[in-house]
Amino acid sequence: MKNWAFVSDFDGTISKKDFYHLVLEKYFEEGQALYKQWKSGEIKDIDFLRQVFTSIHQEERQIIEDIHSLEIDEHVPSFIRKVQAQGGDFYILSAGTDYYIHHILGQYGIRGVEVYSNEGYYKDKNVHLNIDPEHPHHSERYGIDKSKVLTDLKKEYETIYFAGDSEPDSHPAKVANVTFAMKALQDILKENNTPHIEVDSFSDIEQHLICIGVLR
């Protein structure tokens, strides 16, 4: 069994803005009604994302340019390298799609990071999702069941550290050994009495891991 791994959500945790927000603002203003339906629980997360990602109607060059415009926590690339250099593995676990995550990783020269997410691909001026209902990590609501992924990873590592920022992250937070909570996830975990450490950034996370001797 390996020693430890760090697993992070992507949208709103590594990136400062969710990719779907960028699409809504730039290409799909009428999607605000759809957003309200999703937030009220009328439609599933994965159906909301499917509709948003197929409402872009741009050449792939433009979509990649938009992806590259997403700001990320500037501390993330050095944090990942530090984790890898000091014996940890780094994973990204996202209920969005690996399509834009891989473009961001390439943009910042981040290597050796495995991505667990909904498979996405460019076709006919939009981003489409390839969801396999038979996949062992499948979730009807999110496309990918984050807690199932973490449960599998726990079989390989003695300790799993997890970072997230929103409702889908509340499920794997119950499985991780240590959860770092940002933004809305903090209140959700408080309500659920799920143990967590409140942070605002990866710089905060790094300081905590240094304090407990995981990083130096």
From TrEMBL:
<dbReference type="InterPro" id="IPR036412">
    <property type="entry name" value="HAD-like_sf"/>
</dbReference>
<dbReference type="Pfam" id="PF06888">
    <property type="entry name" value="Put_Phosphatase"/>
</dbReference>
<protein>
    <submittedName>
        <fullName>HAD-IB family phosphatase</fullName>
    </submittedName>
</protein>
<keyword id="KW-0460">Magnesium</keyword>
<dbReference type="InterPro" id="IPR050849">
    <property type="entry name" value="HAD-like_hydrolase_phosphatase"/>
</dbReference>
<dbReference type="InterPro" id="IPR016965">
    <property type="entry name" value="Pase_PHOSPHO-typ"/>
</dbReference>
<dbReference type="InterPro" id="IPR023214">
    <property type="entry name" value="HAD_sf"/>
</dbReference>
<keyword id="KW-0378">Hydrolase</keyword>
<keyword id="KW-0479">Metal-binding</keyword>
<dbReference type="InterPro" id="IPR006384">
    <property type="entry name" value="HAD_hydro_PyrdxlP_Pase-like"/>
</dbReference>
<dbReference type="GO" id="GO:0016791">
    <property type="term" value="F:phosphatase activity"/>
</dbReference>
